[in-house]
TrEMBL record:
<protein>
    <recommendedName>
        <fullName>NB-ARC domain-containing protein</fullName>
    </recommendedName>
</protein>
<dbReference type="InterPro" id="IPR036388">
    <property type="entry name" value="WH-like_DNA-bd_sf"/>
</dbReference>
<dbReference type="InterPro" id="IPR032675">
    <property type="entry name" value="LRR_dom_sf"/>
</dbReference>
<dbReference type="GO" id="GO:0043531">
    <property type="term" value="F:ADP binding"/>
</dbReference>
<keyword id="KW-1133">Transmembrane helix</keyword>
<dbReference type="InterPro" id="IPR055414">
    <property type="entry name" value="LRR_R13L4/SHOC2-like"/>
</dbReference>
<keyword id="KW-0677">Repeat</keyword>
<dbReference type="InterPro" id="IPR058922">
    <property type="entry name" value="WHD_DRP"/>
</dbReference>
<dbReference type="GO" id="GO:0098542">
    <property type="term" value="P:defense response to other organism"/>
</dbReference>
<feature type="transmembrane region" description="Helical">
    <location>
        <begin position="6"/>
        <end position="27"/>
    </location>
</feature>
<dbReference type="InterPro" id="IPR042197">
    <property type="entry name" value="Apaf_helical"/>
</dbReference>
<feature type="domain" description="Disease resistance R13L4/SHOC-2-like LRR">
    <location>
        <begin position="882"/>
        <end position="1209"/>
    </location>
</feature>
<dbReference type="InterPro" id="IPR002182">
    <property type="entry name" value="NB-ARC"/>
</dbReference>
<feature type="domain" description="NB-ARC">
    <location>
        <begin position="494"/>
        <end position="647"/>
    </location>
</feature>
<dbReference type="InterPro" id="IPR044974">
    <property type="entry name" value="Disease_R_plants"/>
</dbReference>
<feature type="domain" description="Disease resistance protein winged helix">
    <location>
        <begin position="735"/>
        <end position="797"/>
    </location>
</feature>
<dbReference type="Pfam" id="PF23598">
    <property type="entry name" value="LRR_14"/>
</dbReference>
Length: 1222
């Protein structure tokens, strides 16, 4: 009985236990299932959520851009699309966005159920609790299914978002301030994962389970190696999108899980006896890493299916592979080909049965090899490229090893057996590894994408301002003085400021931002403050409040607080700071603020930006404003091209060479006048698509450029634009609209027209050139092209400014002083044209013009015939007899009348680039002619009557035709005592040989200032010539070239030139007969600022002598000018040298630079010096701003780039490094 009772009690107890245990076990099981599903959902959900965030971020940025004020243009056009999603992609976005919300709700439920306390409540709540877990499991399962549907849909949404992001980026204000937190820094626990995994595998005896080891090698070790290499490439690389960040985060989580498994296995190995632990671990390995293998596979697949890109934005010129990258690609390809050839040879030696089972492997190898060749090496992908190459070689070598192991073996019974089954498994494993490698080559890429938000045309300006702000020499800064402020004058007078001046929209704030964020500035100034000021305000309290909020610490920034000068000054006086005051509108604003910035003796600086240059001068009497110029044509095109993609770009797959498209792009860009604001506005209207000729034509037809900046700038300049500058600016209006004018030609015309004020100290040509520089600095003239030396090559009056000028000064276009003869009919720029496009009817509009300037560049005989007819009629009718200027530059073979000598008043005759072959003899009757230009013509013999032109000042001859003046003047003119061409000041492209009378005429040209002379003479004749040249005491520029009949360099004799006290520029071409006579301090004048040597054949180092020329600013060594192996620049040498060039010095091996040598050097160039070693003395060039390396050995360039930071770590501003290996 008692036993029965005991059994009943036991059964009840057991039932009670089961009632408790079974539900608990069931709940735990469900919880584990829910945990697994939730983990998978979260992993996939994060990347979908990231894509949604990217789309919303791009859309929000685009919305802000689309809200730009429409008053910036008067247009009937709608702006281009910024966010470009197809209907299917928008549907995907909406569905995914809804799914993201659902997943977030499920995630919140999961977190609540996951808590222990709530779990106990579920247990005691009975069926209701079980149902909640069951429902959550079902909801998560549904979410997982929906996520998979969205995740693996074939959609190109990531590509569309990337394209939209680039468009939006191109339209944002420049520069974009990048988020530093987006720069990828690899998690510490993932850095050594490969070493730890290898260590674990090495500790397992491979003889126990060799097949397991091989399986893990390809399923875990291979993808881990490829993934780790890619993550190393991503280090210090900004992750631009949330999608990139989410995928990298998931990759690191997978690695961390593997890390956890490795730690567990290592612990298990230590628990047991070495052999037993080794056996147990090897047996359990496949199962242990099964989940990791699946996660790695999913990670790779996710990247492949979503097809998003890791982007590195670079300038367009950096997108193409460098020669170094191309060379490396060839080396990699050669190594792989070698092992593949070895495999093929091994396979060809095998029996047919073996070859039959391996017939797929060669095709696999070939496909992956092609992928490797197509994967262009790019900067920053070295780790991945090396990993691909190494793994390819390993797989091929494993295949070779498998072939060796497949050889038949004899058993004890002497029967031959083949391990076919084992070999088939190995083959499948190799194919699987090749598939994985192929996928990794496709997905582990960093795409170099053209930066669409580059700052264009400010590189030199950034470098210059940063250098000035970080240089301690007082001469680089303004000294502010307080006028009428008693008690603070002395403390304020040494404060340093720099001002950036320019019209609205030219990029003052952009430049200031680039300077403000420059690394050298951040290093030099511990404290930096940026204060943006309102355009107009007279409220001093409001200005101080604005200043105080930006400068004073956060805890002192009270909304209603009133600030004082003393409060701000007391805070700043102990700090070395840079303060940027952006957009100071007027002098009154500066006066209201300057009391807060008394000199604290700490080297602080203030950087101002203003449209009004009077503000800068008001800040201090010695303050020299830094003027921003309008962008050049190339710079404007580059800025426009960042936003607008047209098929005329060579990189475009459907590159259209249509001249019409190129001309339309040129017209749109030209219309903007080099003003970034106008360029950005036009680009905005055309953004988001590949523009066509129709798009560009509509813009030209419907868009009127924003005129306020131009009219405002003109009004500001009128206040102090003196009469001569005003006349020169008006002269632009007479040219055809949008005509590209040579700066040289323009200056010459201004002089010829009498627009230049006569100066006793400077030649008229120099005065005219200074006028042009002044107009450029005032943003009234745009430089279209620059010469190699940086000076203006061609220029133009911006079209909007031209329209404003014509409205305000309509008489400018009716001025009949100048008639234009050009191809396109433009009534506003030429009132002298009649009914025909080509034949002007001057009888009705201008009977006695003083100037005729031609802009007709048509090919063929017609332009020359029409010009000839026009001139002949003008002479016969007496309508051109008052002509002073006749400029036919670029007109093809104009037919000059034989009686051209009747133009008695003519002072300027321009025939450059006309390809004329002869000049009329009557040209000698042009008694008032001052300038004759026949450069780039085919005129070999000039009439002897040229000698009669006593007023001739400038003579430009044709160098490639070796122009001569006919006959000796004495023989022809029978005036042996008369001086010929005695007023000549400039002679360019002159040529002298045995028969040329010019060699005997230099003694008469006592006013010559610029001489460019080539000669083909024996040394004895050269000595006589040299003797006459040293008598030209007014010479300022001298170029001498000794050449043979094919213009190759010959021996050159040069006498001492020290007597030429005004000589500033000297260029010598030819082998110096006696170098010691010229390369020494007694032979060269101390006035020399520019020296160029070509083919001089110097064997002794010229530097010890040349460095004593204390005014020398530019020194150039061209090919064969120096044949020695080393050069030495000593301490204190070249005190004012700014530019130094070594070009094609084939024997130069070493260049030594002592400390304090060349203390002002700014630009240094090495070109094609093949034997030169990297100079260690570069470290002493502390003022260097530009280092140009062209056609230098690859190793030289790489060493300079590698050592750049080490070389110049002690100076504030690194020089700009320009490399060109081509």
């Amino acid at each position: 009985m008692a036993f029965s009772i005991l059994i009943v009690i036991s059964m009840r107890f057991l039932a009670s236990v089961l009632i408790v245990i079974v539900p608990v076990c069931l709940i735990q099981r469900w919880r584990r299932q829910v945990n697994d599903i939730f983990e998978q959902v979260q992993r996939d959900f994060k990347i979908l959520e990231a894509i949604i965030k990217d789309i919303e971020e791009v859309a929000e940025s685009a919305k802000k851009i689309d809200e730009k004020p429409n008053q910036l243009w008067d247009s009937q056009l709608k702006p281009g699309a910024t966010v470009q999603l197809s209907d299917a992609e928008r549907g995907w976005f909406e569905a995914t966005k809804t799914l993201v919300g659902t997943v977030k709700d499920c995630s919140e439920t999961y977190r609540r159920l996951h808590e222990i306390k709530y779990f106990l409540e579920l247990f005691y709540s009975g069926f209701a609790g079980f149902k909640k877990i069951y429902d959550l499991k079902a909801d998560l399962g549904l979410c997982n299914s929906l996520i998979n549907d969205q995740l693996w849909k074939k959609t190109k949404i990531c590509k569309s978002v990337e394209q939209s992001r680039s468009i939006v980026r191109s339209l944002k204000d420049r520069p974009i301030e990048e988020d530093k937190s987006s720069v990828y820094k690899r998690a510490k626990e993932t850095v050594f994962i490969e070493k730890k995994f290898k260590s674990l595998m090495d500790n397992i005896n491979p003889n126990l389970v060799p097949e397991t080891q091989k399986e893990i090698k390809y399923s875990i070790q291979l993808p881990l190696h490829l993934l780790s290499a890619f993550l190393r490439d991503l280090e210090e690389h900004p992750l631009e999108s949330e999608t990139e960040k989410a995928w990298v985060k998931e990759a690191e989580e997978v690695i961390c899980k593997l890390q956890h498994q490795i730690d567990r296995k290592t612990t298990d190995l230590l628990k047991w006896l070495p052999f037993l632990g080794n056996w147990m671990m090897a047996k359990d390995l496949p199962k242990s890493f099964e989940k990791i293998e699946r996660l790695l596979r999913l990670l790779f697949s996710k990247k492949y299916e979503l097809d998003f890109t890791f982007i590195r934005r670079v300038p367009s010129k950096s997108v193409d592979r460098t020669p170094h990258q191309k060379t490396q690609a060839k080396i990699d390809d050669k190594e792989i080909l070698e092992v593949l050839d070895k495999f093929r040879k091994k396979l060809s030696q095998e029996q047919p049965k073996v070859a039959f089972r391996l017939n797929e492997l060669p095709d696999y190898f070939e496909k992956v090899h092609e992928l490797l060749k197509d994967a262009k090496p790019v900067e920053g992908m070295d780790n991945s490229r090396m990993a691909w190459k190494d793994q390819m070689k390993i797989i091929v070598k494993d295949a070779i090893f498998s072939l060796s192991s497949s050889q038949p073996q004899s058993s004890k019974s002497q029967k031959e057996t083949y391990p076919w089954q084992k070999f088939s498994v190995e083959t499948e494993r190799l194919k699987k590894a090749l598939d994985l490698l192929a996928i990794s080559i496709k997905i582990f890429r960093i795409e170099l994408m053209r930066e669409t938000n580059l700052v264009v045309g400010l590189e030199e300006d950034i470098h210059e301002i940063v250098s000035q702000l970080t240089t301690n020499t007082a001469e680089n800064f303004s000294t502010l003085t307080s006028v009428g402020m008693e008690g603070i004058t002395n403390s304020f007078e040494n404060f340093s400021t720099l001002s950036i001046v320019g019209m609205e929209g030219i990029g003052k704030t952009t430049l200031a931002k680039m300077v403000f964020n420059n690394r050298a500035i951040q290093k030099h100034f511990v404290y930096r403050y940026w204060v943006s000021l309102p355009d107009i305000t007279d409220d001093k309290t409001e200005l101080l409040k604005k200043l105080g909020k930006e400068v004073l610490p956060a805890n002192e920034k009270e909304e209603a607080k009133d600030y004082s000068y003393k409060e701000v000054n007391d805070f700043l006086k102990t700090r070395k700071y840079l303060l940027v005051l952006d957009k100071i509108p007027n002098k009154e604003t500066w006066d209201s603020l300057k009391e807060a910035f008394l000199d604290n003796g700490k080297g602080s600086r203030i950087l101002l930006t203003t449209r009004d240059k009077s503000v800068a001068s008001h800040a201090g009497p010695s303050c020299k404003p830094y003027h921003l110029r309008l962008r050049t044509n190339d710079e404007s095109r580059a800025l426009f091209g960042q936003m607008v993609h047209s098929m005329d770009e060579p990189s475009h797959p459907n590159h259209e060479t249509s001249s019409e498209l190129k001309n339309l792009v040129k017209k749109v860009v030209r219309r903007c006048g080099g003003l970034p604001l106008s360029i950005l506005n036009h680009g905005y209207l055309l953004s988001g698509k590949e523009v066509t000729t129709e798009d560009l034509s509509r813009v030209l037809e419907h868009v009127n450029p924003y005129q306020r900046p131009w009219s405002e700038n003109l009004e500001k300049n009128k206040k102090d634009l003196h009469l001569h500058l005003s006349k020169c600016l008006s002269y632009f209006v007479k040219f055809p609209k949008d005509s590209e004018i040579s700066a040289r030609r323009l200056a010459a015309l201004w002089v010829a027209e009498g627009l230049v004020e006569v100066s006793d100290s400077k030649p008229l040509k120099s005065v005219a050139e200074n006028y042009l520089l002044e107009l450029i600095s005032r943003n009234l003239v745009q430089i279209l092209e620059r010469k190699m030396n940086g000076n203006a090559g061609t220029c133009v009056l911006p079209c909007t400014l031209r329209e404003i000028w014509l409205r305000e000064y309509p008489s400018s276009c009716l001025d009949e002083q100048v008639i234009y003869y050009f191809y396109e009919n433009d009534v506003r720029s030429c009132q002298g044209f009649g009914g025909s496009n080509y034949s002007p009817n001057i009888s009705q509009s201008c009977k006695n013009p003083q100037s005729v300037v031609c802009f007709d560049t048509r090919e063929g005989d017609k332009p020359g015939e029409e010009i000839g007819s026009y001139l002949k009629k003008g002479i016969s009718r007496g309508q051109l007899l008052q002509l002073k200027v006749l400029d036919l530059e670029q007109a093809f073979k104009p037919q000059l009348p034989k009686n051209i000598g009747k133009f008695k008043q003519l002072t300027y005759l321009g025939l450059r680039w006309t390809y004329l072959e002869t000049l009329p003899e009557s040209i000698g009757d042009l008694v008032n002619l001052e300038i004759l230009d026949v450069k780039h013509t085919y005129i070999r013999i000039l009439p002897s009557s040229i000698w009669k032109l006593q007023k001739l000042q400038n003579l430009y001859l044709s160098d490639f035709c070796r122009s001569k003046i006919d006959h000796q003047p004495e023989k022809k003119c029978h005036q042996p005592k008369r001086k010929f061409l005695q007023n000549l000041q400039i002679l360019r492209s002159g040529f002298v040989d045995e028969d040329n009378p010019l060699k005997d005429a230099f003694s008469m040209m006592t006013n010559l200032q610029i001489l460019d002379l080539a000669f083909q003479l024996e040394l004895s004749k050269q000595k006589a010539l040299a003797g006459s040249l040293v008598e030209l005491k007014k010479l300022q520029e001298l170029t001498l070239k000794s050449i043979d009949e094919i213009s190759q360099p010959q021996d050159l004799y040069v006498d001492h030139l020290s007597c030429l006290k005004y000589l500033s520029s000297l260029s010598l071409f030819g082998k110096l007969n006696d170098p010691s006579t010229i390369i020494n301090t007694t032979a060269l004048p101390q006035s020399l600022t520019d020296l160029t040597l070509s083919f001089s054949g110097l064997s002794d180092d010229p530097m010890p002598q040349l460095e004593k020329l204390h005014k020398l600013e530019c020194l150039t060594f061209y090919s064969a000018s120096y044949t020695g192996k080393s050069m030495f620049c000593s301490k204190g040498g070249f005190p004012k040298l700014q530019v130094l060039k070594f070009i094609m010095l084939q024997e130069l091996e070493e260049w030594h630079v002592e400390e304090q040598a060349m203390p002002t050097l700014k630009k240094l160039e090495f070109r094609s010096c093949k034997k030169l070693k990297v100079p260690s003395g570069l470290i002493h060039l502390k003022t260097l701003r530009e280092l140009k390396l062209k056609m230098m050995p690859l190793n030289f360039t790489r060493q300079v780039e590698k050592r750049k930071e080490q070389t110049w770590e002690h100076i504030s501003v690194f020089p700009v490094l320009i490399t060109d290996l081509q």
